[in-house]
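INSTRUCTION: Work out how this chain folds

Fields: amino acid sequence; protein C-alpha cells

Chain under study, with its fold:
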Amino acid sequence: MRIALYNRVFEPSDIPFFKQLISLLHSYRFEIVLYKDFYERLQSSIELDYTPTLFTNHTDLNHDIDLMLSLGGDGTMLDTVCFVHDSNIPTLGVNLGRLGFLADVNQDEIAIAVKALALGSYSIEKRSLIHLDSSEPLFGDYPFALNEFTLHRKDSSSMIKIHTFLNGDFLNTYWADGLIVATPTGSTGYSLSCSGPLVFPTAGNFILTPVAPHNLNIRPIIVPDDTIISFEVEGRTDQFLCTLDSRVATINSKIQLAVKKERFGLNLIRLDEHNFLNTIRKKLFWGIDTRN
C-alpha cells in the first residue's frame, strides 16, 4: 500500500514524531511517498535505507497512491487539497498545530491511526469544494477551495459594494469590508469568526457571510450548493482581493466572478471514534464550565 506524506511548516521539535510515524508505517509495510521539500528537510535527521519516491505537485500523485497524510494544522490540510486535486485519494489530517478542525488526529493517537489505516477500519466523509469561474485566469490549475471563497477590500479603509446574484437573480448589495462564501467544511473557519453559522460538513449548502457589514440587519444566509453565485464589485479604489482558502489574487472591478460547487470533492478519512459532534464539542469547549 502506498501512502503520501505532506508537511508544509517543518518544525525541528516535530522530528521525534516524524521518526515515530515513519517507523510505524514501515512496520505495517506501507510504501512511503514524500513531498520533495519535506524530504529535503527531513533527510538530515532521519536516515532511510532507500530513496523514497517524491512528489512536487498534483500531477505526481497518480491513482496508485492509496492514502495521503497531511501533517500539520488546518492550513496544511488546505494545501493538501491542491495536491490531491481530483484524484479522490483518501486523506487524513494529523494535527501538529493548535485547533485542528480538519486535522483532528492528535500526535498521541498516531499509533491507533496508522493501525486503522492498515486495517481499513475508518470511514470516508465526502467534503464538497467550491469552484471559481472568472473572466481572467486567477488561480491556475487550482480554481477551487475546501473552506471558502472571499472578496475583500484592498488598498482603502473604505467599505466596498458587492452586488450578489443567485442563479442570475439579484440577492443583495453588501456594503462591507468583504464577503465570504463558505462550504460546510469552511463553516468552522473564517465564516465562523464573522458570526456565520455552524453547518454539518456533509450538508449540501453554501454560506454567505458578510465581513463587517455596514447595515447591522444584514445577516449570513445559507443557500443550496447547486446555486451559481455571481458578483459585481465596486469601491473607491479599483483593486480588490479575491481568495480561495489561503491563496490570494488581486482583481479589478472589470473581472467577472462566479462560484459554484466543484465537480469533485475531498475524501476525508475519519477514524471510527472521530465525528463532527465530538470535534465541535472538543474544539469549541461546548458543555465545559470555563469558570473552573
